[in-house]
Amino acid sequence: MASQDRLSAALIHAITVAPAPQPVTPLLSVDNLSVSYGRQDVVHDVAFELGRGKSLALIGESGSGKSTIARAILRLLPSGATASGAVRFGGDNLLALPERRFRPLRGRQIGFVPQDPGNALNPVRTIGAQAMEAAELTDEPNASIRKALVLETFAQVGLENPQRVFSSYPHQLSGGMLQRVLIGLAVLPRPALLIADEPTSALDVTIQKRILDLLSRLQHDLNISLLLITHDLAIASERTDSLVVLKNGVVQEAGKTSSVFSSPTSAYARKLHADVPALNPDRYARLRETGLRLRSADEAPKIEVNAVRKSFTVDGRTLTAVNDISFAVAPGTTHALVGESGSGKTTTIRLLLGLEEPDAGEISVAGERLSGRSHASLRAVWRHLQLVYQNPFTSLDPTWTVEHLVGEPLDRFKVGTPKERAERVREALANVGLAEHLLTRKPGALSGGQRQRVAIARALVLKPDVIVLDEPTSALDVSVQADIVEVLLSLQAKLGLTYVFVSHDLALVRQLAHTVSVMQQGSIVEHGSVADIFGNPQHPYTATLLESIPAGITNLANTTQPKPREVFRKEQIA
Amino acid sequence: MSNAYLTYAAKRLGQAVVVILLAYVFTFVVVSILPGDPITSVLRNPQNGFREEEIAEIIAAQGLDKPIIVQLWHSLSGFLTGDLGISMRSNRPVSTLIAEVLPSTLILASAGLAVALVLAMLVAYGTRFVPKRYGQGLLRGFPSLFLSVPNFVIGLVLIHLFGFQLGLFRVINPDSFWATLFAAIALGIPISAQIAEVLIANLDKEAEQEYATVARSRGLGQARLFVSHLLKPASLPVVTVIALMIGELLGGSLITETVFGRTGIGSLVQRSVSTQDLPVLQAIVSLGAVIFVLVNLVADLLYPLLDPRVKILGGRKRQPTTADETSIGPTRVVMP
Which end of chain B is less packed: N or C, by CB atoms within 10 Å? Predict the structure, then answer.
């Protein structure tokens, strides 16, 4: 196998050509790093060290400066940002190097895995064309060997049919496959350091686990240092040797992962730990039970979905989005619909809201059947059924004031006198814990958490029985998420609301729901109480979902060992 | 080439034919309901010296005594078979008159478009590579500056500078290479301003995309990033812009021809309007409609081939994957 030998030779060449930094000094050492945009400081006096072959997590919420630090190291800060301090990499201060000497380090020595794989590849060029750019960094002169290197790397990151991936365009692959491509391109030139900026936050939970397993495996096999940027303490603790906790651009706490994780000393790290749903399954148990005790035992279900089916015809082919699903939600309880993208969650919501007609089956809300109704009589049902949409950054009209936003449903349904309406708007705001002085603000002047509270107040103002919550916290930081969950649960306890909670986050579901339906490809594969489903899953898909929840370090002696199972599972190309 | 694409192409072609026919009928109706009777006013003009028998003969020959719907039918079936009628002024076939002057206009228009594209490209490239202190802002101001200068002004300035002052071309020989080049420049500058505007805005947008940052993290330099990553996605909307500007290009050609003294469609239009030569005008307006519709048809047919993200409705959809979730990323949809 002569060509195989040449290939291995090229790979070895690529490895040995990299100048090895001194073994005694750390590979990467950041000192007094500060970054500012104009006069605004976003990173302040940050310092940490990363040894060769080691891994370190920068952890923090949005605005903590973690991504800015990554981009400062890569010198990819947007224009207008200035970085000061020192970033020493193998002896050089990266911030002081002239561009002509720094550019050869990019890709060759420092690889980058971006956050959103859907936007990280040029949409109008093939994946192969972009992969060849990475292959050029190996300095292999022969183009066909370079291509063989690319194909071998694709196989290495678990892509089935590398040749087909090579000739595909980005939009033809799924997010998980694209992230594998991007990881492959980053490790292909055998960099000494890999910077991964929230590499899984745009992916489904089972794919997240596979991608993280892949990163851990490559890091070990190729002896790459990993700088992992994440907002998820559980992920960070599972995957890295040391942690740096950031808030508003300042280091709150740093140290070995096991010690920071098990006994955080700073208040912020402790709060971060407490707010991660996966690490605190019983945090809201008492609130949740209070809600339950309010209802009388033998009341009829608020929502009944009976053998509902819905299919769409696309290009003459029929896609069954929802296939024969049934569930009932008792008043004053929360029912969670759990599943990954494409599992039929969204279609179920649309059916519940009467935005789609089911092909078969029946849906009743508060005893009233939805199907076969005119638009006018659906409006009557909508008074009892409100929706909180997943992204508060896009669901509120930016030109309206909070008062207008919250009051609009009352105007629509012509409820009461103007004075009564104003009174109910204030009441709804008080219920979600928003101060009255915010009434005249517009969404642009509110934080993400405040916006979602406005959205909840808007749903509450009509005094509905049922609120459909469509991933209400997925666009928010963990600490904000914890606030919103608390608001939702206290409202339920106080007003006896019934929730349908749609989510892909099982840990969150475990914290706040009473009953669960697990959806996969349009069907409910398993349903039951939260305790049953999480304690004793029957369906293999449920078990896979549960396994994918990052649980943090469970066994401190076994911190960085990737679990071998599933790592090598290949993904199909469409 | 997929079945869906061919279906889409056939549909768009059918639509184009319908639009052209409607444009023809519309022009015909507008001309016939105009106040006054241009035909008889031309024929009865004592200067033309027609006798009454001759007038009757011409009217019968042109079918002007028939009801309007019959005239329309005659005119339309003639148009479809390539017979554009007889000019009332010169008594020669309209198609011959147009064939004489069309090449000159087409040369000018395509040269003008070429100049516009090259110029727009240079300006757009400059906005990415000329540093701020060496006049990047000036280049960014280029589109709005030249959009506001009419092309006949540019033409007159060019004639004065390069024709009279520098003597690069002789004004009395407007079809020479240099004269044509400068006419094309005069025509191309305002058009390039519009293309450059779109191109600069798109380049700025694409440069901020995550993929550009990721490409730079692979060690790509600015020039390589521009050529192999930013240029294509930023240029795609330009196809649409060019198709929409074809009218402006043709109209601009007529003005530029007049300024530079070229014989082309412009001079034919001028003569025909002043003598109210209706068959010629009808033919030229219809020709304009045909060109406009055809160029837009080509643009629409080209777009799905240039941009892999464009999905034609009615086309085959990919199978949902079993291993991962469904595909992400933007998808543009073309309605057939």
Answer: N
Question: What is the average per-residue pLDDT within A240-266?
Answer: 92
Question: Do the first three CATH levels of A2-18+53-77+106-275 and A285-557 match, i.e. the same topology?
Answer: yes
Asked if the ipTM is above 0.85, the reply is no
Residue A40 phi/psi, 5-degree rounding, is -95, 120
Measured in whole angstroms, the distance separating CA B100 from the mean position of its chain's CA atoms is: 20
What are the tokens at A155? Answer: 């196989």
**Which residues, 6+ apart, have CB-to-CB distance to A175 below 8 Å?**
A117, A118, A202, A203, A204, A207, B324, B325, B328
A572–B307 C-beta distance less than 8 A: no
Domain residues of chain A, as ranges? 2-18+53-77+106-275, 285-557
Q: Is the pLDDT of residue A83 over 50?
A: yes
Tokens of B122: 């240079």
Alpha-carbon distances, residue B304 vs A394, A417, B177, B267, B307 (angstroms) = 30, 55, 37, 39, 5
- Contact predicate A167/A126, CB 8 Å: yes
Phi, psi for A284 (deg, rounded to 5) = -105, 15
- H/E stretch holding B310: strand B310-312
A309: enclosing H helix or E strand: strand A303-314
Residue with tokens 């993400």: A448
CATH number given to B98-274: 1.10.3720.10
Q: Work out the burial of residue B334: count CB atoms within 10 Å of its CB; fewer than 13 is exposed, 13-18 middle, 19 or more buried.
A: middle
Q: Which of B99, B107, B94, B98 is nearest to B256 (CA)?
A: B107
> Which residues in chain A are closer than 8 Å to B232, comparing Cβ atoms?
124-125
Least Cα separation, residue B314 to chain A (angstroms): 5
Q: Does domain A2-18+53-77+106-275 have CATH number 3.40.50.300?
A: yes
Instruction: Give residue A195's pLDDT.
Output: 95
Sign of the torsion formed by the C-alpha atoms of B307, B311, B314 and B317: positive
Q: Mutation target for A interface from B214, B235, B305, B334: give the one with most A CBs within 10 A.
A: B214
Which residues does A319 contact at the CB level (< 8 Å), separation at least 6? A311, A312, A313, B320
Q: How far apart, in whole angstroms, are the C-alpha atoms of residue A378 and residue A384?
A: 10
Q: Average of pLDDT values for B95-111?
A: 91
Where in chain B are the domains?
3-80, 98-274
Measuring CA to CA, which residue among A173, A207, A177 is closest to residue B329?
Answer: A173
Alpha-carbon distance B281 to B38, whole Å?
12
pLDDT of residue B329: 35
3-state secondary structure B229-281: HHHHHHHHHHHHHHHHCHHHHHHHHHHHHHHHCCCCHHHHHHHHHHCCCHHHH
R_g over Cα of chain A: 26
Query: Could you report the per-residue pLDDT of A477-529, keeping only the tens digit for each?
Result: 888 899 899 999 999 988 889 999 999 888 899 999 999 999 998 999 999 99
Mean predicted confidence (pLDDT) in B99-107: 91
The residue in chain B having the minimum alpha-carbon distance to the alpha carbon of residue A197 is: B214
pLDDT digits (tens, 9 = 90+) for B132-144: 778 788 888 888 8
The arithmetic mean of pLDDT across residues A186-211, rounded, is: 89
Which stretch of DSSP H or E encloses residue A210? helix A205-222
Are the beta carbons of B104 and B174 closer than 8 angstroms? no
What tokens does B132 get?
């701020």
All residues of chain A having their beta carbon less than 8 Å from the beta carbon of residue B8 are: none
